[in-house]
Specification:
By secondary structure, chain A is α/β, with parallel strands linked by helices. Chain A has 7 helices and 20 strands. Chain A has one domain. The chains are: A alpha/beta, B alpha/beta. At the A-B interface, strand 19 and strand 20 of A face strand 20, strand 22, strand 24 and strand 25 of B.
């Protein structure tokens, strides 16, 4: 099947100045070949997980529709922020970072969804590992639902890779539900070839005491769009998003992360660190949204961007929306090149500038890579990072 | 600690929303609505030179073609067909205080202008509705060669070419719909020229007021600070309350030459039915310094983001602002900066307080172009939520296009700390005083940048708002 893509994705939760070109992003690609609409077989599937393969995309979303009132719970009826765009995605089964256009593509292309369910109080210590080994010119879209029932735990690693010089299309949608005191750990590693078009969309919700932890590494591909929206729907729900990226050549990375904090005493941590080289472009949108009723909650968003070429473009939108008095929200961003003091220190230790740069790149990416709970894959990723820098 | 929660009630702001008991018989009012005929009438009334008349018509065309902004607070309540674009008091320009009509004098006295005069502050240009009615530049300032006059008169003097070459070049009518509206119907405002090397020791002050129902105010401020010169300009605004939505779409264009410095301070306290869609922009040449001090307290809806273009190498900008959004207010404020020159630096420090259902939004942009090697930008914005029915949103944007830049950004949203209140109360300070102290401390970075009388007014306003008395 071949498709023309014209999707408006990664819409900022509140619109701002048009000249900044961050309000949304357009995926406009013609004649995209889609060979596969299913998730590959897991290379590791530990016991204790119920897997339903090839479920219809809409049907797989029913678990979220059934719980919509809990997920979207809010107190009071107060005005939203200025130029609020959240209504755009309200017809999604669960709102995602990239938005409804991804759902529409999944549905129109007939994407099949794999549903991974962990029963109550079952803690699966070993990760599920799903690896996409993409061939040159290949196109794939796929979808997963990960459902952790009360008190359970599951870890899933999704790795996408190809030879460096390969091109093609890879799109993925992952939807998450962590019930009371359940925990979902999701790792996404993108090591696609330099001519790939790639998107990765995540939507999720946590009930009371539930937590979602997402680590992602974006290391390849010509153009990448990634979005993640998690509803911390009930009290003491937690979200951590830890992202590392390396964007080279004239490649493009566009990110939209949103923590939607609704329950009391919820906590979100959003860290993005990475490196821009050559004439790369990166857009990072990170939003902490304290909804009314989220008293006692905290949100922390940090961005650290190392720019290693005079021709790179870095756009950042660290947004905090707040409709609750008793919250603690903060964000910080550090953007620039290596400090002269640091370089001088390195040189006094016999480390030249190029090596110092390589060390700093590795420091940013390895810290995310080392969280991967599979030794073999972790080493492969670290080796991949060493190779490309 | 719930007993320690803030109890803030809406205060009687009548002290800030006075309107003299006077009839509107003295006012000349044009028919409401905006079309070519209206614009030509404004132009004729002003005795515009031909280029300005043509410019107004061009702006009207752009205004009619442009869309409303898609971002920011809603301005649906603003019905342009009901805005009288131009209201002019019958009194003419006055050179001395004695000749100013008594009713206007009363209004000015309540604004504190005579006191400012007594204190030997610089020349006062006060705008009553859309017309400059009183203008006086102290001899000592004029003797230094400083030109401080109304823009319309200046257009007919030897400064005509200077004005023509600067007017709406920084804020072109294509910038946004309300810039185009401003270009079509602007009236009144100040022109300041500080010659090379002149340092104006005393601040120049200007007060603007809107007084008639449905009246828009479109004053234009044009300030040129020549090489090595130094100026502090203070703008303060307040307006009485009416039922019809009022619009303020002024424009401020500031040109700061090589090695010059300009500080532009504003306390805006429009009444709560005002739509304040003001545009302010400065361009800074080599080694020039621009300092903005901005306090936004009034208005129903505000869009206010002073913008600085750091064009010259090693030029600098500092923005210090505070916004207090109370009941019924939606104040969307912040700052914009564009770094073009080598070694340019910018510092943005913003504070906002939201209470009683008010919406306070900090919105900014920091753009570092590829030419701005070794540029440094630092942004800090803090928001204080006083209750759970208000909003405090932070929407900063950064576009960095050189690796050779150093950009830092930090923001915090939080409430008045229970621990801080407890600490102060354990030292014998009442809860109410403790809260007022904490908020005053929060606002301190702004108030300390203001001249004494403005800082006192701002602190009183914060104290009143916080105490509920």
């Amino acid at each position: 099947m071949n498709k023309d893509l014209n999707m408006k994705v990664n819409v900022l939760p509140v619109l701002t100045y048009g000249f900044l070109k961050v309000n949304d992003s357009t995926v406009s690609e013609s004649d995209i070949k889609i060979d596969s609409v299913t998730t590959p077989d897991a290379s590791k599937m530990p016991k204790g997980i119920d897997v339903k393969r090839g479920v219809d995309f809409i049907e797989a979303g029913e678990i979220f529709i059934k719980n919509k009132d809990r997920i979207m719970y809010t107190t009071g009826d107060f005005a939203g922020p200025n130029a609020d765009t959240s209504g755009r995605n309200e017809n999604q089964a669960i709102r995602t970072g990239m938005g409804i256009d991804v759902d529409e593509l999944m549905i129109s292309a007939g994407a099949k969804c794999d549903v991974y369910t962990v029963e109550e109080n079952v803690k699966v210590s070993e990760p599920v590992i799903i690896e996409y080994k993409m061939k040159d010119g290949e196109g794939s879209i796929s979808s997963q639902v990960i459902h952790a029932k009360k008190g359970s735990e599951i870890s899933v690693i999704l790795a996408y890779e190809s030879e460096k010089e390969f091109g093609g299309f890879h799109g993925i949608s992952t939807r998450l539900l962590a019930e009371e005191d359940a925990k979902i750990n999701l790792y996404k590693i993108q090591m696609l070839g330099d001519k790939f078009i790639h998107f990765d969309d995540i939507g999720g919700a946590c009930f009371k005491g539930g937590s979602i932890n997402i680590s992602s590494l974006e290391l390849g591909a010509k153009k990448t769009w990634t979005g993640c929206l998690v509803n911390l729907a009930e009290k003491e729900a937690e979200l951590t998003m830890d992202m590392g990226y390396l964007v080279r050549y004239d490649n493009f990375l566009d990110v939209n992360y949103i923590a939607d904090q609704r329950g009391k005493n919820t906590n979100s941590v959003m860290h993005a660190k990475g490196v821009l080289m050559d004439s790369a472009t990166k857009v990072f949108r990170g939003t902490i949204d304290f909804k009314n009723g989220s008293s006692g909650s905290a949100g922390d968003e940090q961005e650290d961007t190392l720019m290693l070429s005079p021709d790179v473009i870095n756009r950042s939108m660290p947004v905090i929306l707040c409709q609750e008095e008793d919250v603690d929200g903060r964000h910080g961003a550090t953007i620039g090149q290596l400090g002269e003091d640091l370089l001088f220190y390195m040189q006094t230790r016999g480390i030249d500038e190029e090596e110092a740069k390589r060390m700093m790149i590795r420091a940013r990416l390895d810290s995310v890579a080392r969280t991967i709970p599979d030794k073999e894959l972790e080493q492969r990723v670290i080796f991949y990072i060493q190779n490309i820098i | 600690m719930s007993d320690n929660k803030q109890k803030v009630v809406e205060i009687d702001r009548s002290a800030y929303e006075f309107k003299d008991i006077e009839t509107e018989k003295d006012f000349y009012r044009m028919e409401e609505g905006l079309d070519e005929e209206t614009v030509l009438k404004v132009s004729a009334e002003k005795n515009d030179p031909e280029w300005m008349r043509d410019f107004r018509l061009k702006c009207l065309k752009i205004y009619n073609e442009m869309e409303m902004p898609k971002w920011g607070p809603s301005i649906e309540g603003l019905d342009m067909d009901r805005i009288t674009s131009y209201v002019r008091h019958k009194s003419e320009m006055k050179n001395s205080w004695e000749d100013v009509p008594e009713d206007i004098k009363n209004t000015f006295e309540r604004l504190g202008i005579p006191q400012a005069e007594r204190e030997s502050l610089a020349g006062v240009g006060a705008q009553y509705d859309s017309e400059l009615v009183y203008h006086n530049v102290k001899d000592e300032v004029a003797a230094q060669g400083v030109i401080y006059t109304d823009l319309e008169s200046a257009m007919k003097t030897e400064y005509a070419d200077m004005i023509k070459s600067h007017f709406m070049t920084l804020i072109p009518p294509t910038d946004h719909k309300f810039a185009a509206l401003h270009g079509a119907v602007w009236s009144g405002g100040s022109f300041v020229y500080v010659p090379k090397g002149v340092k104006v020791d005393i601040p120049l002050q200007s007060y603007f007021r809107l007084n008639a129902a449905g009246a828009g105010q479109f004053e234009h401020t044009l300030i040129i600070v020549d090489e090595g010169a130094d100026l502090h300009f203070i703008e303060g605004c307040s307006a009485p309350k009416y039922n019809v939505a009022n619009l303020h779409a002024g424009a401020v264009e500031l040109f700061v030459a090589k090695n010059a410095r300009l500080r532009y301070s504003t306390i805006e306290n429009w009444s709560k039915n005002m739509y304040n869609l003001n545009t302010k922009r400065a361009i800074i040449e080599e080694n020039g310094v621009m300092e903005w001090v901005s306090g936004s307290f009034g208005s129903h809806t505000g869009y206010l983001y002073p913008m600085t273009i750091l064009k010259g190498d090693h030029s600098q900008m500092e923005f210090t602002g505070i916004t207090f959004a109370g009941k019924g207010q939606n104040l969307d404020t912040g700052a914009k900066v564009v770094h073009q020159g080598v070694g340019t630096t910018s510092v943005i420090n913003s504070k906002s307080i939201s209470k009683d259902g008010g919406i306070g939004t900090y919105r900014s942009s920091v753009v570092i172009q590829s030419s701005a090697k070794k540029a440094k930008a630092s942004v800090s914005c803090d928001s204080l939520m006083v209750d759970s029915i208000s909003r405090a949103d932070t929407i900063p944007g950064m576009d960095i296009r050189t690796d050779d830049a150093d950009v830092g950004h930090e923001a915090k949203i939080g409430r008045i700390s229970d621990d801080a209140i407890f600490y102060l109360m354990s030292r014998g300070i009442s809860e109410e005083d403790a809260k007022a102290m904490i908020v005053s401390g929060f606002a301190n970075p702004v108030s300390k940048e203001l001249p004494l009388e403005y800082a006192v007014e701002m602190n009183n306003l914060i104290k009143l708002e916080m105490s509920g008395h």
